[in-house]
Structures are given as C-alpha cells and as structure tokens.
Amino acid sequence: MITYHVVSLFPESLDSYVNSSILKRAQERGIIAIKYYNPRDFAKSAKFDPDAVAKMSYAERRVDDRPYGGGPGMVMEALPVIRAVAAAIGKKKAKIIFFSPSGKQFSNAVADSFKKYTDIVFVCGRYEGIDARVKKAFPMTDISIGEYVLTGGELPAMVVIDTITRRIPGVLGDDNSVEERRVAGSDVYTRPPVIEYKGKKMRVPKVLLSGHHKKMDEWKTSLKLKKAK
Ligand code: SAH
Fold it and tell me: Which among 103, 95, 136 is positioned nearest to 2, based on CA atoms?
C-alpha cells in the first residue's frame, strides 16, 4: 500500500480525477490512499496550534508574500509548508517530491523508482512557487512533469499519482496493459469493424481481424517504428 500525502493550498482541485475510475478503485481496494495537508491550516502560529489557527480569519491565515529581490507575483512562505510536510511525515520514513518546472523530468522509469516507498509526500507550489528554504528542512527530489509552466503543482501531483499507481501490479484489470510488458501499438481499435461518417467508410486494419497473433504483433511493432520516425 502506498499513501500519497499531498501538500496543497487547493486540495479540492484533485478530487474529481483521483476519485474516478481506476484510481478510485485502487483506493477502495486499499492499494493506495491519498491524504491532504493545506499549508493554510499551518499558518502563522510559531508552534502549530490547530484551535488557534481555526479561529483565525482568512487574511490572518495568509501563506504568501512578495518575493525578496523584486519580481512579479507572490511566493508561498516556507514555514506553513514545512509544518504541513512535517505533519504529513509524522514519524514515517517518506519520499518527498518538490514540484518545479526546472526539476528532473518525470518518466515511467522515475515512477518505478518511487514504487518502493510506502509514503510519498508531494509539495505543490502555487503563484511564483515556494520559498526555497523548504528544501533545506527535508531532503527532497525536484521533479518536473514537462517543459511548460503550470499555475500549480496539483496537476503534476495527479500525473505522478496516476503514473505510479497504474504500474503497481494488480491495479489494472489486466497487468499486460502496462505498455512495456507487451507489444503495444499507439493506435487502438474496437467494435464495430466498419464505421461510416459523412459518407466515408472507415475500417479496422485487416491484420487485427485476422486472429493471427504473430502477424498482429509484427504490425504493431512496425507501426511503432513508423511513428517514432
Ligand atoms: N516562477 C516559477 C513558476 C511557478 S509555477 C518558476 O519559474 O519556477 C507554480 C507552481 O506550479 C510551481 O511551484 C510548481 O509546484 C508547479 N509547476 C508548474 N509547472 C510545473 C511543471 N512543469 N512540473 C512540475 N511542477 C510545475
């Protein structure tokens, strides 16, 4: 069982995705669990006192401020995030991921290297990012999900949760659905064998209807090579 701990100012933004389909089933079956920690709940008070924080106004619970050295936008303060991460870890040994567009590129191989942990903490930034001192409080791995900049780390958290989870044996109905365990083409087809749209007939490639497994694999491999070029 892997527990994903998501540190985020907008935890509700993950809800509909992680509570649908395969990720939902993986939670129901106890293969994964997802927990949330909002830095806003850990704002201000030097020693975290949940009762005091609960009584604070939204403004008092602010968690961002202007960047030192100038520049646009706001930066998330370090301490509320540090306290949220500390709450997530507790006494456990956890892997901590810090999302950043300049981090190490995420991939299937990176996902596999995370599968061995029972607890993974995701630190999701917003605005111009998080005060870099959070990275001095705990050992963390900087991860980017691609060469583009998003408004927050929540989509990256969903991407990483989804990628790791579908690679855990038993999560997908058929384990052969994990691409590297089979010959998989990027184009897939299902019934019916012929469809018609705007007077044009579109057919499933004949080889896939042949039932000849060796030929089908050869066809998928050649299609893959063609696309790679
Ligand atoms: N000014 C910042 C960008 C902040 S984007 C910079 O140049 O680094 C706001 C937050 O979204 C980041 O803190 C990070 O958590 C997340 N984020 C945005 N794009 C991302 C990407 N490609 N991969 C991972 N996280 C990303």
Answer: 95
